[in-house]
Design brief:
The protein is α/β, with parallel strands linked by helices. It has a single domain, classed as STAS domain (Transcription Regulator spoIIAA, 2-Layer Sandwich). Helix content is 43%, strand content 30%. The chain has a five-stranded mixed beta sheet with strand order 1-2-3-4-5, with helices on both faces. Helix 1 (26-40) packs parallel to helix 2. The longest helix is centred in the middle third of the chain and has 16 residues, at 58-73. The relative contact order is 0.18.
Amino acid sequence: MSMKTRIRQANGVAIVDCRGRIVLGEECVVLRDTVRELLSNGQTKILLNLGDINYIDSSGIGELVGAFTTVRKQGGDIKLLNLTKKVHEVLQITKLYTVFDVKEDEAGAIKSFNPDPAANAA
């Protein structure tokens, strides 16, 4: 099964719903192209929803790191949402869990891109 992505928008954040596997080959290209397309459209706040990713290999991990680097170079931010147990384990083993900003809650993740100064003052 190849990877599919669907892009939604919320408060200036592009939410990329990913489904399937992030593995060497076409799946990695799908992820790379999606991130590049968002950046070329001026979208620098990207949330990758990995809740429907059932497998990721070393190439997929490399692609996530590449996306992270590319977005950061453009002055943007990329965060991960809804890691499955498998993806979580791989990120822990590779010590990348600390590199990525990982969120469990979509609403909270969207807010984290646009911190409200008034909320922090309270």
